[in-house]
Amino acid sequence: MSISKVKVLSAILFSIVILFIESCSRRWTVKEKQEFAQKCSLTDSVQNLALELTGFKQNEIENIIVREMHNGKIIDSFYIHPDKNRFDSLRTRSVAWIEHTIYIKDSYQIVISENQSFILSDMKMVMWPEYTMFSEGYGCEMGDYKIDGIRFEHNANPDFVKKGWKE
What we know:
Blueprint: H1 3-24, H2 30-41, E1 45-46, E2 49-54, E3 64-70, E4 73-80, E5 93-98, E6 102-103, E7 107-113, E8 116-131, E9 136-147, E10 150-153, E11 159-161
Parallel strand pairs: 2-11
Antiparallel strand pairs: 1-6, 2-5, 3-4, 3-7, 7-8, 8-9, 9-10
């Protein structure tokens, strides 16, 4: 094959790749963003919420009690257990999933041990951009909340840090 044929074939292949990439890209319209933001703001519950646990030893987090509170009264309680395969012993970090529906208007007391409990409250759903190489998208996440009265924004996984723990 001559050098000129290789150049022509390379140019054609390059053009096809560029056309493919361009055809895959998609941007949301202003109207689509506004409609999605409105829908997200009306969301009142979260499924499969991940809780991060920092500073605890594995045996301290085996049985975590979660108490759902509505208007200051406990209306439900259940146990969650951390994923033992996701325990990081160096940084003492773990993840536990709440497999119950979490209602953002309610508050939740997370009881890790006798003297380690936290209140998760004032939750809000937020619209976040989710970009890929080829498209623009948005997701609706519980990414604004308070833990023990301290506001956390733009963080989808509440992190409960052992009191007195230093990294």
